[in-house]
Design a protein that fits this description.
The protein is mainly alpha-helical. The protein contains ten helices and no strands.
Length: about 240
């Protein structure tokens, strides 16, 4: 491997390191945001507790404890990952692969947590209980509608982060196992980045990006890596609506 190619590989590794830290910061933001919004909703509901049954109040408390437990478990995992050396070099490829898989799983768990606000394995979901409260207090007073909109927006943010993260492992594979292909990946990304006038991609467009925008690349790993780099460029350029 020549010096020029080695420099390119090192630069990509550095970007991947920054991207991992950036994703962890978005996960922390998501955890804090869900905690803040659910706390606010429960506190509003408590203003009307005199009009609620004991059973309903107990169900709300139980649902909130379940949410808080999931948030804390996710926060513990983020803290555990941040204590490690976040892919600072390609000296330990297997450790890097395990790390990005952990980060990917964290993003998936964030999406699941948001979706689970509207369902429950046992009993009524948090949002179902809040809807019951709103029937007794008035939806505008409680703000359930605004809460649902906030969670939809948050789900959209984490979905976009998910499409960035899904390319991390393929990118490591291309960089470490197919270094001769990385320039082809970069060329295709740059061609799209400077050609595409609408950079505010929808979730559907991102889903189809690998098979449409990067169809000239030979392997699935190369296409996923290209999509991840492209989304990272959009995100870091503040053109992606984060």
């Amino acid at each position: 491997m020549g010096n020029a190619m080695a420099g390119v590989i090192d630069s990509i590794w550095e970007i991947l390191c920054k991207a991992c830290n950036w994703v962890l910061s978005k996960i922390e933001w998501c955890l804090n945001y869900i905690s803040e919004k659910t706390n606010n909703l429960v506190n509003r509901a408590k203003r009307f507790y005199d009009n609620l049954t004991e059973s309903l109040k107990e169900s709300i408390a139980k649902a909130k404890r379940a949410i808080d437990e999931k948030l804390e478990n996710a926060a513990d995992l983020v803290r555990s990952i941040k204590k490690k050396s976040i892919i600072s070099s390609c000296s330990d490829v297997e450790a890097a692969k395990k790390l990005v898989v952990q980060i990917k799983n964290l993003v998936v768990s964030m999406l699941k947590l948001i979706l689970d606000l509207n369902k429950s394995e046992s009993g009524k979901s948090f949002l179902t209980l809040m809807d019951e409260v709103s029937l007794k207090t008035g939806k505008k007073k409680l703000g359930v509608g605004e809460f649902k909109e906030d969670m939809m927006d948050t789900c959209g943010v984490m979905s976009r982060v998910g499409y960035l993260v899904r390319g991390f492992l393929p990118l490591i594979i291309v960089v470490t196992e197919k270094p001769d292909k990385i320039l082809c990946v970069i060329v295709e990304v740059c061609k799209l980045f400077f050609k595409e006038p609408n950079r505010n991609k929808s979730i559907k467009e991102m889903k189809n990006m690998e098979s449409t925008s990067f169809k000239l690349l030979e392997s699935d790993e190369e296409r996923k890596a290209a999509a991840s780099i492209y989304i990272a460029l959009l995100s870091f350029a503040s053109n992606f609506g984060f």
